């Protein structure tokens, strides 16, 4: 009797390099099915999308995104508030060239369909990433000289000085080289430019500046506490201050008002807090029919006894009232 021994054969599956065998549940042994692909049992398929590790600004027109694995492609990225002008992908980085970023600001960067070598896609970042631009930068101005151009330099002060005729000119900038001619013009310029100080210098012979002035909230008007700058007006008051609640000073002036057939005041302060400081001035009201008041405090600062801490702070002033038939008050 002849016996035939049948030995079991172990099959080996060979496939070209780079080929992918898809599966649903099972694969030819010894392969196993993972993530829809037949792979060796010792191989784990990358199923995770690229994760953003960092986002950093480079200069003021570039942002570099760093990922945890090699990125083979990406959809368009966007930066909130900026224009993305170019985008490149290199290994684990995506570099964005943007419009100019503002130093110290933060920007939100988002990218769609960032794809790794296994075809995994994700949104990067999954939460907004803030990119802070730090450091100081030097800015250069390019001036077109083909047409007349005028560049005006300012410090933090508007200057006022008048030698002869105190008439405002439309081309007067209000800086040291082109001071305004009137105090009110200086105040208006400070408000327009967002500056907080008006410096008034005395006229030749300390001739008085003529006309009343109306102060602006937060704009100090400073003369000279040693040689007080003279200001004269003929009207209800020389200086009007209404609703001053921001730090504001009036200092270094000799304020005098002319006679009136009604009321003559040196300073009229209405609804002003103690943020308003009046110091080192001489304030004088003229003779009047109804009332002559050196400093008139209205609203919460009612005369003749102001509420402590509720009105302007008066320091080292000389305050005088003129003669009046009805009432005369220095302050």
List key phrases describing it:
single chain, 331 residues, mainly beta, Immunoglobulin-like, 3 domains, six-stranded parallel β-sheet, five-stranded parallel β-sheet, 1 helix, 25 strands, disordered N terminus
Structural overview:
The protein has 1 helix and 25 strands. The protein is mostly beta strands. The chain folds into 3 domains: 19-47, no CATH class; 52-132, Immunoglobulin-like, CATH 2.60.40; 158-329, no CATH class. The strands form 6 sheets. It has a 6-stranded parallel sheet with strand order 10-11-14-17-20-23, with helices on one face. The protein has a 5-stranded parallel sheet with strand order 12-15-18-21-24, with no helix packed on it. The longest helix has 11 residues, at 183-193. The radius of gyration is 40 Å and the shape is rod-shaped.
Task: Describe what is shown at a glance.
This protein is mostly beta strands and 331 residues long. It is 3% helix and 37% strand. It has 3 domains: 19-47, no CATH class; 52-132, Immunoglobulin-like, CATH 2.60.40.1220; 158-329, no CATH class.
């Amino acid at each position: 009797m002849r016996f035939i021994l049948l030995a079991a054969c172990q099959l080996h599956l060979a496939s070209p390099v780079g080929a992918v065998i898809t599966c649903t549940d099972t694969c030819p042994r010894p392969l196993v099915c993972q993530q829809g692909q037949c792979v060796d049992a010792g191989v784990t398929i990358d199923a995770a999308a690229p994760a953003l590790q960092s986002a950093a600004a480079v200069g003021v027109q570039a942002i570099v995104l760093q990922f945890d694995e090699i990125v083979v492609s990406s959809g368009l990225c966007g930066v909130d508030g900026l224009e993305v002008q170019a985008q490149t992908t290199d290994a684990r980085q995506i570099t964005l060239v943007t419009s100019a970023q503002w130093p110290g600001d933060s920007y939100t960067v988002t990218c769609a369909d960032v794809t790794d070598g296994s075809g995994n896609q994700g949104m990067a970042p999954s939460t907004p990433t803030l990119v802070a631009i730090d450091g100081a930068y030097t800015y250069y101005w390019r001036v077109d000289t083909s047409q007349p151009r005028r560049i005006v330099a300012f410090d933090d002060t508007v200057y006022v000085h008048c030698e002869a005729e105190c008439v405002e000119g439309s081309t007067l900038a209000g800086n040291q080289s082109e001071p305004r001619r009137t105090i009110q013009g200086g105040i208006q310029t400070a408000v327009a430019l967002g500056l907080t100080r008006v410096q008034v210098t005395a006229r030749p012979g300390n001739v008085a500046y003529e006309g009343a002035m109306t102060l602006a909230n937060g704009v100090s008007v400073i003369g000279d506490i040693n040689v007080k700058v003279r200001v004269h007006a003929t009207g209800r008051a020389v200086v009007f201050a209404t609703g001053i609640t921001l730090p504001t000073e009036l200092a270094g002036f000799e304020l005098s008002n002319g006679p009136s057939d009604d009321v003559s005041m040196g300073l009229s302060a209405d609804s002003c807090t103690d943020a308003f400081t009046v110091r080192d001035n001489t304030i004088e009201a003229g003779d009047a029919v109804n009332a002559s008041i050196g400093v008139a405090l209205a609203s919460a600062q009612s005369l003749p006894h102001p509420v402590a801490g509720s009105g302007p702070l008066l320091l080292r002033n000389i305050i005088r009232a003129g003669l009046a038939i009805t009432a005369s008050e220095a302050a």
